[in-house]
User: Fold this.
Amino acid sequence: MNHAEPFRGARAGTAVSCTLLIFALGIGVTACGSDDHPLATEPYDAADQIAFNGPVGDGKKADPDKPLEITAEDDDGRITDVTALDATGRYVAGELSADGTRWHSTSPLAANAHYTVRVSTEDEDGAPGRKTLTFDTGKPVTKKRLNVTFGPKAGEYGVGQPITAKLSKPVKDSAQRAVIERALKVDSIPAAQGAWHWVDDKELHYRPKEYWPAHAVLQVRSNLEGIKISDGLWGGKAKPLKLTTGDRVIAVTDASSHSMTVYKNDQVIKEIPVTTGKPGFDTRNGVKVVLGKEYFVRMRSATVGISEGSSESYDLPVYYATRVTWSGEYVHAAPWSVGSQGYANVSHGCTGMSTANAEWFFNAVREGDVVQVVNSNGNTMETFGNGFGDWNLDWEKWRVGSALVAGNTAEGPDSEETARLRPQSV
Assistant:
């Protein structure tokens, strides 16, 4: 829970056993009734025991820029717990002093929100008190809002699909990033440990430690609306997102053995002879994620800087093309290289296979499925900017990209928009 945990300090005389076993003297057994225990009594109204800095009187609203504070006014009593939440269910984090005399919020209040605060106390005899307070916060003076757009679009994806959050304004300050990150929530059923990673000043990605569970339900939402991020900037609205995952489909291409093995729920369902990039055009190593599928793509060597008339030039109609990078790396039909498939690497970077096998693969995978290349002489797939290479960072390095982890220096390379302009290869 985000609110402060109850203070559990020992108090003399609060709990005393009243059972007397005096068999030796022949007096017998005597026991106190449960009604004699202080905690068994009805909580008293603690209104006179506490004070808070919220507004008093009809029509008055609290300043969301100021922290909430509850103090114990009675020298013989103390605060034991405070729970504060708004009408949308967002809890306010807080700290309770060790002596129970003061509780204050440590997370910002939302603007234009209705809050309910439940305060628990006890008197010098340990008897419990309760008081419920309500108040509203005012609207922020500024009209600047930071909106969040989640991606991808709602639907079913493979277990390798990261979640994206794009901000309407850049945020560089680490403390401001932390406010934003705490408000972005991802719930998975079944549960999966995950974390946000700042790609750049305007984009975050979320992924679990391992791939998502198969047939999971992912709920993504933002609690940022009305929350102060900085002077002059407040959280805006964000449309929640629901995703599901399908079967666990992972295709592993071994460039040295010129073969692809396709796994479904950890069982091999097909082995395919392939050809990958030849020297100078080596296929990227590492984990990639299916970005989309195109039945027909025209691939031309001029887009990768190969001039017409060169022995390496090409202009080919390509079918059953499954895209894995924005720069033009695909898994696709390559009928012109069937004789080399399973024996040699002759492509310009793509993974080629027969038309029949490419059609099968095209129909077997969906966006978010994992395509991994091993034993190639190519560089490792870019982490960001050229698709989803998120999985090529180990978990500890991924977590360093979170604003909630000390020493965060996460920086992202090229933007996705820049990478989309890159050429295609075959």
Remarks:
- The domain at 20-136 is CATH 2.60.40.3780 (Immunoglobulin-like).
- The chain has three domains: 20-136, 145-245, 249-420.
- The mean pLDDT is 84.
- The chain has four helices and 30 strands.
